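Human:
Care to share another protein and its fold?

Assistant:
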Amino acid sequence: MDVSPLAWALTILGILALLLFDFFFHVRTAHTPTLGEAAIWSAIYVGIAILYGVGVWLLGGAALGSEYFAGYITEKALSVDNLFVFLIIMASFKVPRADQQKALLFGIVFSLLARTAFIFLGAALVNSYAFVFYIFGLILLVTAGQMLRPGTAKGRSANNIIVRLAKRFLRTSETYDSDRLLTVDRGRRVMTPMLLVMVAIGGTDVLFALDSIPAIFGLTRSVFIVFTATAFSLLGLRQLYFLIDGLLDRLIYLSYGLAAILAFIGVKLILHALHENNLPFVNDAQPLQVPEIGTGVSLSVIAGVLIITVISSLAGVRLHAARAEGHAGGSRGNGSKTDPAGRD
């Protein structure tokens, strides 16, 4: 489907307006959001994304609407996994709680710009070379396998290549100066660690795009849908960070759910690649008559996997807590049989 320049312009203006509103009304003055504030604004941003999807559904048709929602849900789920690393970065750089909002917002803006470039590059490759679907599918299958390793999300390091390069080339002061990017240190104007944190968050999120962009291209070929689903999934990430900061540990099976989703999309991409095959060493460059997975099935599988993941995670946490309480109770009961003072 061809999207009119007006639709592109209105969408981009709307995204810019949301970013500016976020900065001037929430981030410009450093403060720590309350749980209620984070919950309300997270709900508002999710609501905006849903309303936009309804508009896509009504104006572009059910197929395009389904692709948008499948892409948005997938990107949002992957962004939750990214928050584990954001927490590690914030702790590693000892960012004051009140100043974390600004670091997150600027890092997200940088990521959005970089991902937009990736999206157009990916679209050019997909439209020119059918074999790219094989590559995207293999990337997702490898990523899914890596996510099945124990402690994948929490074990990720904040000291990745982006952070190491930033530390090497960006000379900063030793201490923060509120949320300022520049300060005066020993009579010299230097950068504060806040700039380093923004680069670390934005750069790390760009690395995550190496699996999230192929994932959404596995759900839609529309550049407009890829861009909008990615943008709206990132817009509410700052609020989501403060909302589920203390709840991430309860999503104990999140990596398994995301691995299942990425593996499913990886298989879908490879099936599509076989259906449009032109590689000379595969079936003599002739397409294979293999079944393809529709968008409706994809949306149902993604939503179903996420629901099962959340429910099983919460149930698993309760089960572990009950077992821990039972062991603690048993230990107290055994200890009470012996008088610590040695009395009869």
User: Anything to note?
Assistant: The two ends are 86 Å apart (CA to CA).
